[in-house]
Amino acid sequence: MRELLLSTEQLLISAAAQHPFFFSPRRSGSCAQVSLSVCSSLEMEEKGVDSDGNPFTTRSQLWAKEAGEDIATSTCFDPTKKQEWYSKGVSYWEGVEASVNGVLGGYGHVNDRDVAASDGFILEILPEATRLSKHLVALDCGAGVGRVTKNLLLRHFHEVDLVEPVSHFLEAAKDSLMTVSPSSSVFGRAINFYCKPLQEFIPKANRYDMIWVQWCIGHLTDRDLVEFFKRAKVGLRPYGFFVVKENTTKHGFLVDKDDNSITRSDAYYRDLFEQAGLFLLKTKMQKGFPKELFPVRMYALTTEPVKAGPIAHRTREFRSCGQGLLLCMSHTTNFEYEKETVCWWLFARVTLSDKGSFYLFTVGTSFAMVLLRRIYCYE
């Protein structure tokens, strides 16, 4: 594996974009890092290259050539070409061993660091008080052999459904998850196993508190990615959210011809999320991965924007409550602390005697010291 830092011109003639340098952790559409040097930020986000060194000047050119789609009209003018795009990806993974090391492209040793970072991210957006106060359900998209469900989601959610297009991966997930016994750290159960590609999957309405999407949407065309999130929004319960965890390029995109997947830039993803009507709640980078791999970014996305408005300089009273804080609020509100806006629904509602409603705040250790500090509330 080598880190690739090439200009657009170099990429057109460089053999360094060939297969041996690509890292594909579970349909990630990932390769060694590529920096596309172009004149403006807009141009940088539109340009890309494939693993054979072929350039694309725009996203539209990419999807017209590879999947027969017209971005401008959001239509498919060549269904055969689109089918070929998806079947090649599934065929690639059908030839991969159904194991953690297999789905991580030979990088099984990154599993623990990946899970640890994801666990911390969930705790920042899903407080313990919320987890303990209601029956939570999650959906694991591109679930593979059940790696994320087994090592992460079953520790935070009472029920987890899995959706995966590769049948022998899903069978391995069933075998693995059906033997998981409840413990002090694992209290959830895997319930439903759907053998379906995301571009065809329709989640059950109002079922999920969180939909986890990791290393899989690189196989979706732009059009199908946007449509997937639009459909999946219906599957979220009130105040539910998505977590997306994907490899990213610095600029533009890179197409892996081996498994027909695309690695997009952070700006590219944000544009697609906006098209799907999603709002960014929080984002964070994965740390501790080998340097030759693409940067991995986590996104927490909601279907409603974080409220904003005139800041009322008002001090709220906090009281110590274990590792959390009690905040006296009688209605939904957001507040800003150290320039970070926190959604009101990150609080789990509790009632104390007859004195009214309070909210238990347990998001992250950095907020444990806000006692007697001034909080800026959005009314």
Automatic annotation (TrEMBL):
Enzyme class: transferase
UniProt GO BP: methylation
Keyword Cytoplasm part of the UniProt annotation: no
UniProt xrefs under Pfam families: Methyltransf_PK (PF05891)
Gene3D superfamilies found in the cross-reference section: Vaccinia Virus protein VP39 (3.40.50.150)
Keywords, comma-separated and alphabetical: Methyltransferase, S-adenosyl-L-methionine, Transferase
Residues passing through the membrane, by range: none
EC number: 2.1.1.244
InterPro entries in the record: MeTrfase_NTM1, SAM-dependent_MTases_sf
Gene Ontology molecular function: N-terminal protein N-methyltransferase activity
Swiss-Prot/TrEMBL catalytic activity: N-terminal L-seryl-L-prolyl-L-lysyl-[protein] + 3 S-adenosyl-L-methionine = N-terminal N,N,N-trimethyl-L-seryl-L-prolyl-L-lysyl-[protein] + 3 S-adenosyl-L-homocysteine + 3 H(+); N-terminal L-alanyl-L-prolyl-L-lysyl-[protein] + 3 S-adenosyl-L-methionine = N-terminal N,N,N-trimethyl-L-alanyl-L-prolyl-L-lysyl-[protein] + 3 S-adenosyl-L-homocysteine + 3 H(+); N-terminal L-prolyl-L-prolyl-L-lysyl-[protein] + 2 S-adenosyl-L-methionine = N-terminal N,N-dimethyl-L-prolyl-L-prolyl-L-lysyl-[protein] + 2 S-adenosyl-L-homocysteine + 2 H(+)
GO cellular component: cytoplasm
Family, per entry: Belongs to the methyltransferase superfamily. NTM1 family.
Task of the protein: Alpha-N-methyltransferase that methylates the N-terminus of target proteins containing the N-terminal motif [Ala/Pro/Ser]-Pro-Lys when the initiator Met is cleaved. Specifically catalyzes mono-, di- or tri-methylation of exposed alpha-amino group of Ala or Ser residue in the [Ala/Ser]-Pro-Lys motif and mono- or di-methylation of Pro in the Pro-Pro-Lys motif.
Stated name of the protein: Alpha N-terminal protein methyltransferase 1
